[in-house]
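Tokens as discussed.
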């Protein structure tokens, strides 16, 4: 088990249908102790039930829209877990209406700013505390999607946010290297999660992805979790500033006609 005696902080847990849960499952299976952060008390209560059978799980509530909450919560975590080896940033949000129709249909400055704040700034804001949380170095991992690189119907403002997120990964990798902290991202294929349900044409995205992929079917939570374990472990110690596509090869292929 390659994460034995490692402590992994997972931010943005929502439900068993989330990528965060798939990563938590695989990290736990490889021996990691888990710290789970949820956006509000209701989600934290749900997590208590979802992780009831896991060993070594600590739960916290963290609202990344509030700067002081980031500082206070991470300080609490540091007091009880002074040496964390990995941070998983599984946080993204855009107003549901902005994921319907064209990108100009329902956009506003407020909706745009909120998507950037929650989806992108939260990674930078949390990473500010990474040298304290990970005094011996470690790994920061976030989640993105190919809609950052290609315009995809219905992804809209979230595609712009994910493009910003991937740029932030590169700049954070440059800054965090001196602390022996790696920063990377997984670009997962479409998967039935709570967040995906907000995308207006998600079923079409699933069908198009499956039709084009070299590997059969769509990606699973276990497959994403396994790739996350690689990034969180010493096996990725030479990799930083990168985006790994875990999408059954969709990103590499054009549609067949």
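Sequence:
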């Amino acid at each position: 088990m390659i994460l034995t005696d490692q402590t992994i902080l997972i931010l943005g847990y929502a439900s068993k249908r989330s990528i965060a849960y798939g990563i938590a499952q695989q990290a736990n299976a490889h021996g990691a102790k888990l710290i789970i952060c949820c956006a509000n008390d209701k989600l934290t209560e749900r997590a208590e039930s979802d992780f009831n059978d896991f060993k070594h799980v600590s739960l916290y509530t963290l609202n990344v829209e509030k700067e002081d909450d980031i500082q206070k919560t991470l300080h609490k975590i540091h007091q009880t877990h002074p040496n964390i080896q990995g941070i998983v940033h599984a946080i993204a949000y855009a107003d549901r209406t902005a994921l319907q129709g064209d990108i100009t249909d329902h956009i506003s400055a407020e909706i745009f700013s909120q998507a950037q704040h929650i989806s992108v700034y939260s990674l930078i804001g949390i990473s500010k505390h990474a040298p304290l949380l990970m005094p011996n170095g470690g790994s920061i991992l976030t989640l993105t999607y190919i809609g950052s690189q290609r315009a995809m119907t219905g992804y809209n403002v979230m595609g712009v946010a994910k493009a910003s997120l991937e740029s932030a990964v590169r700049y954070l990798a440059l800054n965090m290297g001196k602390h022996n902290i790696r920063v990377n991202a997984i670009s997962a294929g479409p998967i039935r999660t709570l967040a995906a349900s907000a995308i207006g044409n998600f079923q079409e995205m699933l069908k198009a992805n499956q039709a084009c992929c070299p590997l059969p079917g769509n990606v699973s939570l276990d497959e994403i979790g396994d790739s996350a374990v690689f990034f969180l472990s010493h096996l990725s110690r030479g990799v930083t500033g990168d985006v790994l596509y875990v999408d059954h090869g969709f990103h590499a292929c054009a549609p067949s006609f």
